[in-house]
Amino acid sequence: MKIGNVKINGHLFLAPMADVTNPAFRMLCKKHGAALTYSEMISADAVLHGNIRTANRGLSSEEEKPFAIQLFGNSAATIVNASSIIEERFCPDIIDLNFGCPAKVLVKDGSGSALLDFPEKIREIVSAVSGKVDAPVTAKIRVLHDMEKTLDIARVIEEAGAGAITVHGRTQAQQYAGKAEHEYARKIKNELSIPVIANGDISNGHSAKHVLEYTGCDALMVGRASMGNPHIFTEISHFLRTGEQLPTDECTQRLADFKEYVRLLELYGLEEYVDIRMHARWFTRGIKGGRHVRQGISGTREKKSIIRLMESLCAQLPSKATNNDFHGK
Ligand SMILES: Cc1cc2nc3c(=O)[nH]c(=O)nc-3n(C[C@H](O)[C@H](O)[C@H](O)COP(=O)(O)O)c2cc1C
Predict the structure, then answer these.
(1) What is the DSSP letter of 14?
(2) Structural domains of the chain, ranges and CATH numbers in brackets
(3) Which residues lie with the beta carbon below 6 Å from any ligand 1 atom?
(4) 22 CB-near residues (< 8 Å, 6+ apart)
(5) pLDDT in tens, 168-191
(6) Among this protein's residues, is 29 annotated catalytic?
(7) pLDDT tens figures, 70-79
(8) Ligand 1, atom 13: nearest CA belongs to which residue?
(9) ipTM higher than 0.95?
Protein backbone atom coordinates (compact mmCIF):
# COMPACT_ATOMS: atom_id res chain seq x y z
CA MET A 1 0.00 0.00 0.00
CA LYS A 2 0.96 3.64 -0.30
CA ILE A 3 0.45 6.62 1.98
CA GLY A 4 1.06 9.65 -0.18
CA ASN A 5 4.22 8.73 -2.05
CA VAL A 6 5.47 6.38 0.68
CA LYS A 7 5.39 2.72 -0.21
CA ILE A 8 4.62 0.44 2.71
CA ASN A 9 5.25 -3.27 2.40
CA GLY A 10 2.58 -4.73 4.58
CA HIS A 11 -0.50 -3.77 6.49
CA LEU A 12 0.39 -4.31 10.15
CA PHE A 13 1.44 -1.11 11.87
CA LEU A 14 2.84 -0.45 15.34
CA ALA A 15 0.70 2.13 17.18
CA PRO A 16 2.22 5.26 18.67
CA MET A 17 2.49 4.70 22.42
CA ALA A 18 3.99 7.13 24.92
CA ASP A 19 6.70 5.52 27.06
CA VAL A 20 6.59 2.41 24.86
CA THR A 21 7.46 3.05 21.21
CA ASN A 22 10.94 4.44 21.69
CA PRO A 23 13.34 3.95 18.75
CA ALA A 24 14.70 0.65 20.14
CA PHE A 25 11.27 -0.88 20.63
CA ARG A 26 10.14 0.31 17.21
CA MET A 27 13.19 -1.29 15.62
CA LEU A 28 12.40 -4.56 17.37
CA CYS A 29 8.84 -4.49 16.04
CA LYS A 30 10.17 -3.69 12.59
CA LYS A 31 12.37 -6.79 12.75
CA HIS A 32 9.24 -8.77 13.54
CA GLY A 33 7.45 -7.41 10.52
CA ALA A 34 5.69 -4.20 11.57
CA ALA A 35 5.35 -2.48 8.21
CA LEU A 36 5.09 1.03 9.63
CA THR A 37 6.13 2.21 13.08
CA TYR A 38 5.08 5.36 14.92
CA SER A 39 7.02 7.35 17.48
CA GLU A 40 5.60 8.16 20.87
CA MET A 41 3.54 11.33 20.64
CA ILE A 42 5.75 14.40 20.68
CA SER A 43 4.61 17.74 22.00
CA ALA A 44 4.86 20.43 19.34
CA ASP A 45 5.57 22.95 22.10
CA ALA A 46 8.42 20.82 23.44
CA VAL A 47 9.94 20.59 19.94
CA LEU A 48 9.94 24.36 19.70
CA HIS A 49 11.62 24.55 23.11
CA GLY A 50 14.32 22.02 22.15
CA ASN A 51 13.45 19.53 24.89
CA ILE A 52 16.08 16.72 24.89
CA ARG A 53 13.76 13.94 25.99
CA THR A 54 11.49 14.91 23.14
CA ALA A 55 14.37 14.86 20.70
CA ASN A 56 15.10 11.23 21.59
CA ARG A 57 11.58 10.27 20.62
CA GLY A 58 12.23 11.29 17.04
CA LEU A 59 15.47 9.32 16.62
CA SER A 60 15.43 6.56 14.07
CA SER A 61 17.67 4.60 11.75
CA GLU A 62 17.76 3.73 8.06
CA GLU A 63 16.65 0.18 8.85
CA GLU A 64 13.49 1.40 10.50
CA LYS A 65 12.20 3.14 7.40
CA PRO A 66 9.40 3.80 6.75
CA PHE A 67 8.52 5.33 10.10
CA ALA A 68 6.16 8.03 11.30
CA ILE A 69 6.59 10.71 13.93
CA GLN A 70 3.46 11.73 15.78
CA LEU A 71 2.90 15.28 17.00
CA PHE A 72 0.32 16.80 19.28
CA GLY A 73 -0.51 20.38 20.05
CA ASN A 74 -3.37 22.85 20.22
CA SER A 75 -2.50 25.43 17.62
CA ALA A 76 -1.88 25.17 13.90
CA ALA A 77 1.03 27.62 14.07
CA THR A 78 2.86 25.63 16.74
CA ILE A 79 2.28 22.28 15.06
CA VAL A 80 3.36 23.60 11.66
CA ASN A 81 6.59 25.03 13.04
CA ALA A 82 7.30 21.86 15.00
CA SER A 83 6.60 19.73 11.91
CA SER A 84 9.20 21.65 9.91
CA ILE A 85 11.81 21.17 12.62
CA ILE A 86 10.94 17.48 12.98
CA GLU A 87 11.11 16.91 9.24
CA GLU A 88 14.46 18.61 8.88
CA ARG A 89 15.98 16.94 11.90
CA PHE A 90 14.63 13.38 11.78
CA CYS A 91 13.41 12.89 8.18
CA PRO A 92 10.33 10.82 9.09
CA ASP A 93 8.54 9.27 6.12
CA ILE A 94 5.21 10.37 7.56
CA ILE A 95 4.07 13.00 10.05
CA ASP A 96 1.07 11.86 12.06
CA LEU A 97 -1.19 14.23 13.98
CA ASN A 98 -2.74 13.19 17.27
CA PHE A 99 -6.46 13.93 17.50
CA GLY A 100 -7.20 11.04 19.81
CA CYS A 101 -5.29 11.16 23.08
CA PRO A 102 -7.78 11.23 25.99
CA ALA A 103 -5.20 12.06 28.69
CA LYS A 104 -6.51 14.85 30.93
CA VAL A 105 -3.36 16.89 30.66
CA LEU A 106 -3.72 17.09 26.86
CA VAL A 107 -7.48 17.53 26.83
CA LYS A 108 -7.30 20.42 29.32
CA ASP A 109 -4.80 22.04 27.02
CA GLY A 110 -7.07 21.70 23.99
CA SER A 111 -4.87 19.03 22.32
CA GLY A 112 -5.40 15.38 21.38
CA SER A 113 -9.02 14.24 21.51
CA ALA A 114 -10.18 17.71 22.69
CA LEU A 115 -9.82 18.79 19.06
CA LEU A 116 -12.54 16.35 17.97
CA ASP A 117 -15.06 18.95 19.17
CA PHE A 118 -13.60 21.45 16.71
CA PRO A 119 -13.54 19.96 13.20
CA GLU A 120 -12.65 23.31 11.65
CA LYS A 121 -9.59 23.54 13.85
CA ILE A 122 -8.63 20.04 12.74
CA ARG A 123 -9.04 21.21 9.14
CA GLU A 124 -6.81 24.20 9.79
CA ILE A 125 -4.08 22.07 11.40
CA VAL A 126 -4.07 19.28 8.80
CA SER A 127 -4.18 21.72 5.93
CA ALA A 128 -1.41 23.93 7.33
CA VAL A 129 0.93 21.02 8.10
CA SER A 130 0.25 19.32 4.74
CA GLY A 131 1.02 22.58 3.00
CA LYS A 132 4.30 22.99 4.84
CA VAL A 133 6.11 19.64 4.98
CA ASP A 134 7.15 17.29 2.17
CA ALA A 135 6.22 14.11 4.04
CA PRO A 136 2.63 12.90 3.82
CA VAL A 137 0.57 13.96 6.81
CA THR A 138 -1.77 11.50 8.50
CA ALA A 139 -4.22 11.80 11.39
CA LYS A 140 -5.19 9.49 14.22
CA ILE A 141 -8.62 9.94 15.77
CA ARG A 142 -10.87 8.45 18.38
CA VAL A 143 -14.57 8.24 17.59
CA LEU A 144 -17.53 10.26 18.85
CA HIS A 145 -20.80 8.77 20.09
CA ASP A 146 -22.39 10.25 17.02
CA MET A 147 -21.47 8.29 13.89
CA GLU A 148 -22.36 11.15 11.53
CA LYS A 149 -20.14 13.61 13.42
CA THR A 150 -17.30 11.10 13.33
CA LEU A 151 -17.74 10.71 9.58
CA ASP A 152 -17.69 14.50 9.24
CA ILE A 153 -14.35 14.66 10.99
CA ALA A 154 -12.95 11.95 8.73
CA ARG A 155 -14.17 13.87 5.66
CA VAL A 156 -12.60 17.08 6.96
CA ILE A 157 -9.29 15.28 7.48
CA GLU A 158 -9.33 13.94 3.92
CA GLU A 159 -10.38 17.27 2.40
CA ALA A 160 -7.63 19.06 4.31
CA GLY A 161 -5.00 16.95 2.57
CA ALA A 162 -4.23 14.03 4.89
CA GLY A 163 -2.65 10.97 3.28
CA ALA A 164 -4.34 8.47 5.61
CA ILE A 165 -6.44 8.28 8.75
CA THR A 166 -6.26 5.91 11.71
CA VAL A 167 -9.48 5.20 13.57
CA HIS A 168 -9.34 3.96 17.16
CA GLY A 169 -12.87 2.75 17.74
CA ARG A 170 -13.29 4.16 21.25
CA THR A 171 -14.55 7.50 22.48
CA GLN A 172 -12.54 9.89 24.62
CA ALA A 173 -14.74 9.08 27.64
CA GLN A 174 -14.09 5.36 27.25
CA GLN A 175 -10.34 5.81 27.62
CA TYR A 176 -9.35 2.13 27.24
CA ALA A 177 -12.50 0.56 28.69
CA GLY A 178 -15.05 -1.45 26.77
CA LYS A 179 -14.52 -2.79 23.30
CA ALA A 180 -13.32 -0.89 20.26
CA GLU A 181 -16.23 -0.39 17.87
CA HIS A 182 -14.97 -1.09 14.35
CA GLU A 183 -18.21 -0.06 12.69
CA TYR A 184 -16.76 3.48 12.56
CA ALA A 185 -13.65 2.38 10.65
CA ARG A 186 -15.87 0.36 8.29
CA LYS A 187 -18.08 3.34 7.48
CA ILE A 188 -15.13 5.71 7.16
CA LYS A 189 -13.41 3.27 4.79
CA ASN A 190 -16.59 3.15 2.70
CA GLU A 191 -16.64 6.93 2.32
CA LEU A 192 -13.04 8.02 1.99
CA SER A 193 -10.53 7.45 -0.79
CA ILE A 194 -7.40 7.79 1.36
CA PRO A 195 -6.12 4.68 3.19
CA VAL A 196 -7.93 3.96 6.44
CA ILE A 197 -6.18 2.16 9.30
CA ALA A 198 -8.29 0.34 11.89
CA ASN A 199 -7.12 0.32 15.49
CA GLY A 200 -8.31 -1.12 18.77
CA ASP A 201 -8.15 -4.53 20.47
CA ILE A 202 -6.21 -6.31 17.74
CA SER A 203 -4.37 -8.84 19.82
CA ASN A 204 -3.92 -11.99 17.72
CA GLY A 205 -4.39 -13.46 14.27
CA HIS A 206 -8.10 -14.06 14.73
CA SER A 207 -8.94 -10.50 15.76
CA ALA A 208 -6.71 -9.12 13.01
CA LYS A 209 -8.43 -11.22 10.35
CA HIS A 210 -11.85 -10.29 11.66
CA VAL A 211 -11.17 -6.53 11.73
CA LEU A 212 -9.55 -6.56 8.28
CA GLU A 213 -12.48 -8.41 6.76
CA TYR A 214 -15.17 -6.54 8.65
CA THR A 215 -13.88 -3.03 8.01
CA GLY A 216 -12.25 -3.53 4.61
CA CYS A 217 -9.53 -1.20 5.93
CA ASP A 218 -6.16 -0.89 4.24
CA ALA A 219 -4.13 -1.63 7.36
CA LEU A 220 -4.32 -2.52 11.04
CA MET A 221 -2.58 -0.81 13.91
CA VAL A 222 -1.53 -2.86 16.92
CA GLY A 223 -0.95 -1.18 20.28
CA ARG A 224 -1.08 -2.83 23.70
CA ALA A 225 -0.72 -6.38 22.43
CA SER A 226 2.80 -5.53 21.25
CA MET A 227 3.97 -4.26 24.66
CA GLY A 228 6.56 -6.81 25.76
CA ASN A 229 5.61 -8.96 22.79
CA PRO A 230 6.99 -7.54 19.53
CA HIS A 231 6.77 -11.06 18.09
CA ILE A 232 3.00 -10.45 17.79
CA PHE A 233 3.65 -9.01 14.33
CA THR A 234 5.24 -12.26 13.14
CA GLU A 235 2.38 -14.24 14.68
CA ILE A 236 -0.39 -12.14 13.13
CA SER A 237 1.29 -12.10 9.70
CA HIS A 238 1.63 -15.87 9.82
CA PHE A 239 -2.02 -16.30 10.71
CA LEU A 240 -3.20 -13.93 7.99
CA ARG A 241 -1.08 -15.82 5.45
CA THR A 242 -1.84 -19.37 6.49
CA GLY A 243 -4.96 -19.30 8.68
CA GLU A 244 -2.94 -21.14 11.31
CA GLN A 245 -1.38 -20.15 14.58
CA LEU A 246 2.41 -20.05 14.52
CA PRO A 247 3.74 -22.52 17.12
CA THR A 248 6.00 -20.45 19.34
CA ASP A 249 8.09 -21.22 22.39
CA GLU A 250 6.80 -18.04 24.02
CA CYS A 251 9.15 -17.74 26.96
CA THR A 252 12.27 -18.32 24.87
CA GLN A 253 10.99 -15.90 22.25
CA ARG A 254 10.24 -13.18 24.81
CA LEU A 255 13.64 -13.68 26.42
CA ALA A 256 15.43 -13.40 23.06
CA ASP A 257 13.41 -10.29 22.23
CA PHE A 258 14.16 -8.72 25.60
CA LYS A 259 17.90 -9.31 25.15
CA GLU A 260 17.74 -7.75 21.70
CA TYR A 261 15.75 -4.85 23.13
CA VAL A 262 18.41 -4.19 25.76
CA ARG A 263 21.08 -4.30 23.03
CA LEU A 264 19.17 -1.78 20.93
CA LEU A 265 18.59 0.53 23.91
CA GLU A 266 22.35 0.53 24.49
CA LEU A 267 23.04 1.04 20.80
CA TYR A 268 20.75 4.09 20.63
CA GLY A 269 21.96 5.44 24.01
CA LEU A 270 18.44 5.34 25.41
CA GLU A 271 18.92 3.39 28.62
CA GLU A 272 18.57 6.35 30.94
CA TYR A 273 15.30 7.39 29.31
CA VAL A 274 13.54 4.03 29.58
CA ASP A 275 12.12 2.42 32.72
CA ILE A 276 13.66 -0.96 32.03
CA ARG A 277 11.89 -2.68 34.93
CA MET A 278 8.48 -1.64 33.63
CA HIS A 279 9.35 -2.86 30.14
CA ALA A 280 10.83 -6.12 31.47
CA ARG A 281 7.61 -6.80 33.36
CA TRP A 282 5.67 -6.48 30.11
CA PHE A 283 7.94 -9.09 28.53
CA THR A 284 6.82 -11.64 31.14
CA ARG A 285 3.10 -10.90 30.92
CA GLY A 286 0.93 -13.89 30.18
CA ILE A 287 3.70 -16.37 30.95
CA LYS A 288 3.00 -19.00 33.56
CA GLY A 289 5.01 -18.16 36.67
CA GLY A 290 5.61 -14.65 35.33
CA ARG A 291 4.07 -12.96 38.36
CA HIS A 292 6.79 -14.29 40.62
CA VAL A 293 9.47 -13.08 38.23
CA ARG A 294 7.83 -9.66 37.99
CA GLN A 295 8.14 -9.34 41.76
CA GLY A 296 11.84 -10.13 41.43
CA ILE A 297 12.21 -7.58 38.64
CA SER A 298 10.73 -4.89 40.89
CA GLY A 299 13.64 -5.38 43.27
CA THR A 300 16.46 -4.74 40.79
CA ARG A 301 17.59 -2.24 38.19
CA GLU A 302 20.38 -4.43 36.84
CA LYS A 303 19.72 -5.63 33.28
CA LYS A 304 21.81 -8.74 33.86
CA SER A 305 19.81 -9.69 36.96
CA ILE A 306 16.56 -9.11 35.09
CA ILE A 307 17.75 -11.36 32.27
CA ARG A 308 18.81 -14.05 34.77
CA LEU A 309 15.34 -13.94 36.33
CA MET A 310 13.74 -14.32 32.93
CA GLU A 311 16.11 -17.17 32.05
CA SER A 312 15.16 -18.99 35.23
CA LEU A 313 11.49 -18.56 34.33
CA CYS A 314 12.02 -20.15 30.91
CA ALA A 315 14.15 -22.93 32.39
CA GLN A 316 11.37 -24.04 34.71
CA LEU A 317 8.77 -24.24 31.95
CA PRO A 318 8.43 -27.39 29.89
CA SER A 319 10.57 -26.96 26.78
CA LYS A 320 8.83 -25.74 23.65
CA ALA A 321 5.88 -24.40 25.63
CA THR A 322 3.62 -22.88 23.01
CA ASN A 323 1.25 -19.94 23.10
CA ASN A 324 -1.49 -22.31 24.20
CA ASP A 325 0.38 -23.14 27.40
CA PHE A 326 0.27 -19.56 28.57
CA HIS A 327 -2.12 -18.24 31.10
CA GLY A 328 -3.70 -14.88 31.70
CA LYS A 329 -1.42 -13.98 34.64
C1 LIG B 1 0.79 3.15 27.07
C2 LIG B 1 0.04 3.75 25.92
C3 LIG B 1 0.50 4.91 25.34
C4 LIG B 1 -0.18 5.47 24.25
N5 LIG B 1 0.33 6.59 23.66
C6 LIG B 1 -0.26 7.08 22.53
C7 LIG B 1 0.34 8.14 21.80
O8 LIG B 1 1.41 8.64 22.14
N9 LIG B 1 -0.31 8.58 20.68
C10 LIG B 1 -1.50 8.02 20.25
O11 LIG B 1 -2.05 8.45 19.24
N12 LIG B 1 -2.06 7.00 20.91
C13 LIG B 1 -1.45 6.51 22.01
N14 LIG B 1 -1.98 5.42 22.64
C15 LIG B 1 -3.15 4.75 22.05
C16 LIG B 1 -2.70 3.64 21.08
O17 LIG B 1 -1.98 4.17 20.00
C18 LIG B 1 -3.92 2.87 20.54
O19 LIG B 1 -4.73 3.77 19.84
C20 LIG B 1 -4.75 2.23 21.65
O21 LIG B 1 -3.93 1.60 22.60
C22 LIG B 1 -5.74 1.21 21.06
O23 LIG B 1 -5.07 0.18 20.39
P24 LIG B 1 -4.84 -1.27 21.09
O25 LIG B 1 -6.18 -1.77 21.53
O26 LIG B 1 -4.20 -2.10 20.01
O27 LIG B 1 -3.95 -1.03 22.27
C28 LIG B 1 -1.35 4.86 23.74
C29 LIG B 1 -1.81 3.69 24.35
C30 LIG B 1 -1.13 3.13 25.41
C31 LIG B 1 -1.64 1.86 26.02
Answers:
(1) E
(2) 2-242 (3.20.20.70), 250-325 (no CATH)
(3) 15-20, 40-41, 70, 98, 100-101, 140, 168, 199-202, 222-225
(4) 40, 56, 57, 265, 268, 270, 273, 274
(5) 999 999 999 999 999 999 999 999
(6) no
(7) 999 999 999 9
(8) 17
(9) yes
